[in-house]
Amino acid sequence: MPGTEPQLLIMIPITPKDVGRVAWSAVSYERGIRPALSARVRVLSPEAGLIASIYDDRGMDVAGPNAGRMRECYVKFHDWLLQYDRAEMDHRFGKM
What we know:
The chain has helices at residues 16-31, 67-76, 86-93; strands at residues 41-45, 50-56, 59-63. The chain is α+β, with helices and mostly antiparallel strands. The longest helix has 16 residues, at 16-31.
């Protein structure tokens, strides 16, 4: 398709302690810090039933079919949530 960049999907198993390092490398690119990773980063946890899409230093999106885990994230990080889709999150998980 004209105007689109080639895409490559690479899945690399990492340990929980490495998640922060991978997240930082993706965020550092947006901040102009080197070394950095110029890529879309998604961290999947099949065990938890969650996927996190890290987009920049402002945060990440978390999604998944595990409603219990999603509610845990909603409660634990409630003060960090952006206003975008806040009404939907409040509706699904109970307004705090």
